[in-house]
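Lab notebook page, bench 4
Experiment: in silico fold of construct C2
Operator: M.H.
Input chain length: 90 residues
Purpose: comparison with the prior construct
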Amino acid sequence: MADNILTSAEIKRHGLAVIEDRLALGPVHLMKRNRRAAVVLSEAEYERLLQAQPKAVPGQGALQWLLTQAPQGKRSRAQIDAELEAGRDW
């Protein structure tokens, strides 16, 4: 699927209606100086992301929060160690 991109020129020409039209296709990437600068989400998508966030525990620091997170990667410790060692050989 092609990126759903809008430039500032398109927004200036068509106004906010063009953003609303593009939101029907999914998140809209806004370009600034030929670089992605922001993403516009529908209200429903924004609320879904908010609900998916883990709830903060009062008094819990960043380290405690990190330690409670489930592992996301698929590499073993040995693979990570080998990659780090290979990066040191320069």
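Observations: The radius of gyration is 21 Å. Helices lie at 8-14, 16-23, 43-52, 62-68, 77-88.
Next step: discuss at group meeting.
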